[in-house]
Amino acid sequence: MDWHEAKALLDWQIELGATEAIGETPVNRYAQAPERTADPPLAAVAAVASDSAAPPDVAMSDPVQAARAAAAAAQDLESLRMAISDFDLCDLKRGARNLVFADGHPEARVMVIGEAPGRDEDIQGKPFVGRAGKLLDRMFAAIGMDRAAPDPDHALYIANVLPWRPPQNRDPRPEEVAMMLPFVERHVALVAPEILVLMGNHSCQALLGRRGITRLRGTWAEALGRPALPMFHPAYLLRNPQAKGAAWHDLLMLRARLKGGN
Ligand code: URA
Question: How far away, in angstroms, is 251 Cα from ligand 1 center?
């Protein structure tokens, strides 16, 4: 193979999202596929699904239904984390290094929901730890809130709509969001925050069924039966610093609501 051919092959891999080398030798995942069919977690999902009206094979061929069954069976955050980690029907899992489940205080009054992990989050297995995450931390620090605070009044709990990084940080696809939404719903139900903060368009689309963050932000909405405040995503604020004034306004609205003021 000549240089140009090798370069074209590499370009093609990058286009597919294979942007980082994680081993010296290639792994043929297709050759490993037969072993995966006996995974106990999938068997567990099938067992739960078989309790419902649909026969297990129908449930298993419908990823949303399988996700609903797996999410409903999780009685606490640790089992939800395991249920997501065992969920094999979302292709994003295969390209991700780590599951990015959540960070912060599970009893926080405020739960922030972002879009999906990026590169830094994928590496560390925690949401919002890259540049946008650092800005998010500074934004909330300005109203006295911190994901590491031990006191639920000042703490945050942070998760994303998608728990695995989309290749090359592409936008989440509707079918990926639909498949993972039952887990997000269960996540919110288990944390039971007083207020949801929806970061950016994808989070609003998933949880409010609406997008257009410029119009949505700064107005209280309702998501999953809880008050929800759409805000500009910190990644957007990094690209559009002139929008930081609006974000500050929204943080003040949040603070006022937490103090019982609006
Ligand atoms: N952007 C998000 O929406 N979530 C993260 O965790 C990081 C960046």
Answer: 18
